[in-house]
Amino acid sequence: MLASAAFILAALAYAVAADPVPLEPSSTSVFNEGSNCTILWTPDTTGTWTTMYIELMTGDNFNQVHLKTVATVDGTDTANPRFSYPCLDVTPNSPIYFYKFTSPGSTTGPLFTTRFTIADSTGTSTPATETQNATDGTVVRWGTGALTDPTQGDAPPPTSGGTSTGNTTASGSASSGTVRPTGSSSSTLISSGTGTSTASTSSRTNGASKVAAGSIAVGAVGALAAALFL
Question: Where is the composition biased (Low complexity) (predicted)?
Fold first, then answer.
């Protein structure tokens, strides 16, 4: 009981003062090409992530491929920790894409969402074809995708630690060797690869429910609990 109470207190402290925690997309998220791709996270409360790069990635857990830096935002902005942009055309249309979060001032390493699906414009997608064992023994399904138009790709930001461009492999791996998941005026947008910050509603795209402020704090605690037991 004491151990459980200590864990809860530690988790709450983490939620109060912590790096950003990626919340969305989740493993069940499906975004159609050309529609809005939406990203949601808890804001950084350490004051470190004032410049936060968000990269669209693919590949396995240890050989990650940078496709595009979709945005550079202020990760400490508490007004609206979210970003939307027009989903890029990719191949294949499968649940093999994820986002990587980095910041020049952070010493804790990159953060990741779980893998999600980018479907074609009609909502059609195919299953991931590759498998990999995660550190907790679960089987991770993955694949390596690419931008349909390679000229839309770019080099990874300097905090990624790699020099690859477009659809080649970027260096670095997810924390603990796994890719995990990590209101409403527009997010403070510094620059964007393909889109702009979202409009002034807190509803998520693709019919998902609105996000309450309390759910963000709960998400941060849940993310910490999941990370500790992997």
Answer: 160-206
